[in-house]
Design a protein that fits this description.
- The longest helix has 19 residues.
- A hairpin with a 6-residue loop joins β28 and β29.
- The protein is of the alpha+beta class.
- The strands form 7 sheets. Strands 2, 4, 8, 19, 21, 22, 24 and 25 form an 8-stranded mixed sheet that branches. Strands 9, 10, 11, 12, 13, 16, 17 and 18 form an 8-stranded mixed sheet that branches. It has a 5-stranded mixed sheet with strand order 29-28-30-31-32.
- α6 runs parallel beside α8, α13 runs parallel beside α15 and α13 packs across α17.
- Among the domains are: 198 residues, Immunoglobulin-like, CATH 2.60.40.1670; 270 residues, von Willebrand factor, type A domain (Rossmann fold, 3-Layer(aba) Sandwich).
């Protein structure tokens, strides 16, 4: 039986350090590690909001070994008398700096307390001169009502930006307009959507190379000095808020005439290219000196797009409505005319933005696709936000944007910029790679593994933006030679250097340890297996492989891994399926894989390429709890007998009862489903009668719970209220296990029949048992 201590350990590790691991005890050799089937993986949330937030106002103490540079932490052995500490990563003994002369067992530095496995340092204490940059890129090829709704939301967002931030505006239609923030005259510079402009071109065309006066160069981080220089296109919001409001209110719909049967001429690619290059632009000062303006200064390019790029750079589809935008079938047939060229263009643009430290957000509002498949690298490589809505008038869009700038208890927007995460490991471990919204920093190190998983070949990754739920997956391997002895411990240290929203430069350090065991057959490894974390890690590996392999091959790889891991940890007698017994620590893992196989991450049916891209992109960045909800949605049942109380029930067709209300959370959708009897009661108005007051409580309870879920999530999920037999009930019917189908006309039990040819979970598990116990495997 899985002990409560193990479950508590998983929860505490995540809340305290933002860490979830598939295996929480490790084999002592690579050979034994390979027998575990799944790689050693860690889900780590570097910007997780912790219960006890405290910041140490000084520089961290760093190990003096050149190839180590690990940071002093609570797991280190400390000799207070000799003023020495031993690094857990390389075992090097280091002397304390002079500032630690008074350190003792009764006066320990903050990072040495036992509960300080995660600490944060402010390396520019008191210095708040690094303002974040927010550059709006707005599509004007939308209907008047849509544009007015968009402008209202953008004006609200202006008031939520940090006062110290720099703000600018680019609008686009057939042409791209860079707006000058000028109180004297309304002025914008126009650029062709068919021409690519470099940073140097923009300097000349925007006349930034003629600027003769500017603040002195910005000093290094942590040094007192003047703030980042500005220009006429990026101004401090605290000084220009009313002017920015006037400029935003003055945004007009694109005036270029669109002929019947044609799409808007929309230069999305050119607009994003100009935005990236504008933030990369160089000021030329007197005396021939130059300075990069906002390179390595955190910022967001927030694009609001109402349709596909139909002209020039990054073109997705032409303007002829007879030519529909590509589908999964067209892509599989190799007939997507603009796919490769557009994808290559946006990938190059994303790499440039990530190098500069700028996140690219994509907020879309369109009933048709806008080319998210081709543009996915922009948010995926830069950590930008991604929101997929049908309309700028929808609450899904407006509420999502509000959440981006919602303030925390300290009055700060919960976001970080321009982060670099460095992973350091003890000598027995190697780093295979990372899967998440990041790019490689290309840092070669002896601790890099030979086998790459995800973005590998480095120990450092860059995240242009971090949210409290941003969670990369890092994979590890065991050293092949000189395996560590059982009973020892391996150490991993995550060091994340980022720009705080208030302008400080901060370093968050998380150090964890796990024990080694001689054999992979040790029951302790099995008992400390985190099946939720493992399921999410496996899902990420599957999605990453889909970028390079065909879907059937990935599905077979997934099935083989499930069979092998069940063989590894279950007990059975060969060729006797009835003897198969899976331990409690893996009890729900096969079920999660079953739902993963049916999920929109691996299945294309009824989803466009843009929707598939959206689902996968969100999976690759959210934390473990959100990831497992995406894979296997949870279902709550409300009964008229229990009032406001809800009961978790199986995601199964048998749960579709006529006299209950169901609440399903898929992360992307929050759905309230009324059974046939509940619909009848409501239509008859029973819930409004005093004698049936309990019915009103019963019917309102799931709506209140759904509202709470929606209000606490980003991006905001689609909120659906439906009933038995309604068209939108398909969202629920497509997720539940089809234990009852249309092929069972004489079924008399509770539940609803599902019209599908999919195999049920029971059939899936029966087949799995046969394969696991088969002597031929």
């Amino acid at each position: 039986m899985m002990s409560q201590d193990v479950n508590s350990f998983f929860a505490d590790s995540e809340s305290k350090d933002g860490v979830r691991m598939s295996f929480n005890c490790w084999p002592a050799s690579r050979i034994e590690a390979a027998k575990l089937v799944l790689p050693l993986g860690v889900m780590y949330t570097p910007f997780k909001k912790r219960e006890s937030e405290f910041v140490l106002p000084y520089e961290p103490v760093v190990c003096r070994t050149n190839n180590c540079k690990a940071i002093l932490n609570s797991l280190c052995n400390v000799d207070y008398r000799a003023k020495l500490w031993s690094c857990v990563i390389c075992n090097q003994r280091n002397a304390f700096p002079a500032s630690y002369a008074h350190a003792s067992e009764t006066q320990m530095p903050g990072e040495l307390y036992q509960e300080s496995s995660t600490v944060e340092y402010s390396v520019s204490s008191g210095i708040k001169n690094i303002p974040p940059v927010f550059l709006y890129v707005v599509d004007t090829c939308i209907e008047p009502d849509e544009l007015n709704a968009l402008k209202r939301t953008l004006l609200e967002s202006l008031h939520s930006l940090p006062p110290n931030s720099l703000c600018g505006l680019i609008t686009f239609g057939k042409y791209v307009y860079v707006h000058e923030i000028n109180p004297l005259v309304e002025k914008a510079y126009a650029f062709k959507g068919t021409k690519e402009y470099s940073s140097q071109d923009l300097l000349k065309l925007l006349k930034l190379d003629r600027q003769t006066a500017a603040p002195a160069p910005r000093p290094a981080y942590g040094v007192h000095g003047p703030s980042v220089p500005t220009n006429k296109f990026l101004k401090p919001l605290s000084e220009t808020l009313s002017l920015m409001e006037e400029i935003f209110e003055g945004i007009q719909r694109d005036t270029f005439e669109v002929q019947t049967g044609r799409r808007y001429i929309r230069s999305v690619g050119a607009a994003l290219s100009i935005a990236v290059n504008l933030l990369e632009s160089v000021f030329h000062f007197g005396g021939g000196s130059t300075q990069t303006t906002h390179t390595n200064v955190g910022g967001r390019i927030m694009s609001f797009i109402g349709g596909a790029c139909t002209d020039g750079l990054g073109m997705i589809v032409d303007d002829d409505l007879r030519n529909t935008i590509r589908t999964h079938h067209v892509i599989e047939q190799g007939q997507a005319k603009y796919l490769k060229k557009a994808t290559k263009f946006y990938e190059a643009l994303a790499m440039k933005a990530s190098k500069n430290g700028h996140a690219v957000d994509i907020y879309t509002a369109a009933l048709d696709q806008i080319g998210l498949l081709e543009m996915k690298s922009l948010p995926s490589l830069t950590g930008g936000n991604l929101v997929l809505a049908d309309s700028f008038e929808s609450s899904l869009f407006s509420e999502s944007l509000k959440k981006v700038f919602a303030r925390d208890e300290e009055g700060n927007c919960p976001m970080a910029f321009n982060a670099v995460m460095d992973v350091r490991v003890s000598k027995e471990l190697r780093i295979s790679g990372c899967i998440g919204p990041c790019v490689s920093m290309g840092v070669k190190h002896p601790s890099v593994a030979d086998m790459e998983i995800g973005v590998g070949g480095t120990t450092q990754w860059k995240f242009c933006s971090l949210l409290p739920t941003t969670t990369p997956a890092i994979f590890f391997d065991i050293v092949p030679q000189a395996p560590t002895s059982a009973g020892g411990q391996g150490y991993i240290q995550f060091v994340t250097n980022y720009q705080h929203i208030n302008g400080e430069r901060r370093i968050r350090v998380t150090t964890i340890a796990r024990s080694y065991l001689t054999s992979s057959d040790d029951p302790v490894i099995r008992d400390w297996f985190d099946q939720d974390a493992a399921a999410v890690l496996l899902a990420r590996l599957s999605v990453f492989r889909l970028e390079r392999e065909d879907a059937p091959d990935v599905m077979r790889w997934l099935d083989r891994n499930l069979i092998k891991i069940c063989q590894k940890f279950s007990s059975f007698t060969t060729n006797q399926p009835e003897s198969y017994l899976l331990p409690q620590s893996l009890e729900f893992f096969p079920q999660a894989v079953y739902h993963l196989r049916r999920s929109p991450f691996l299945q294309f049916f009824n989803n466009s390429p843009d929707e598939t891209t959206f689902y996968r992109s969100i999976l690759l960045r959210e934390d473990t709890e959100s990831g497992i909800t995406m894979i296997q949605p949870y279902l709550l049942e409300y009964s008229s007998l229990t009032g406001k109380e809800s009961t978790p029930v199986s995601l199964d067709a048998t749960s579709l009862k006529k006299d209950t209300i169901l609440l399903m959370d898929t992360f992307f959708h929050v759905l309230v489903y009324h059974g046939a009897d509940v619909v009848y009661w409501k239509n008859q108005g029973f819930d409004q009668l005093p004698e049936y007051a309990h019915l009103k409580v019963f019917m309102e309870a799931p709506l209140e719970d759904a509202t709470e879920i929606v209000s606490n999530r980003f991006p905001v999920p689609r909120y659906v209220v439906t009933e038995e037999g309604a068209s939108q009930a398909r969202f629920l019917l497509s997720k539940v296990n089809p234990s009852i189908t249309h092929t069972q006309p004489n079924y008399q039990g509770e539940g609803g029949a599902i019209l599908t040819d999919d195999v049920s979970l029971e059939v899936f598990l029966q087949h799995l048992r046969k394969l696991v116990v088969s002597s031929q495997n």
